[in-house]
Amino acid sequence: HAAHVRRATRVYRARRDLVLDGLAKLDDTLEVVPSVAGLHVAARFHDPTTDDRAVVRRAAQRGVRVEALSDHQHDQPTSPGLVIGFGGVEAEAVPDTMNRLRDALGRRDL
Fold this sequence. Notes:
The chain has helices spanning about 1-25, 50-60, 95-105, and strands at about 30, 40-45, 65-70, 80-85. By secondary structure, it is an alpha+beta fold. Strands 1-2-4-3 form a 4-stranded antiparallel sheet, with helices on one face.
């Protein structure tokens, strides 16, 4: 059991690091919400008028599944952003996935 946990920790840490690397290229658009746990990363849009649900739809059209952060804020004012899961994505696929997300944001300059 302990060996499995150590291996899983390494695998998910590598995936998380790749997602964070991809988000670093979008730091003028998104700000990562600090977290050290879970199999997802949340990031808020700097522009509070961004329609995060529209971004989710554009990402889905590119084969990228993310969730709108505003859908998770039921008891507080909404802040647009994205929830990016990495538990079910192989590490090798993360860079391409982040590029497709960038395209969904209308960013082709990276």
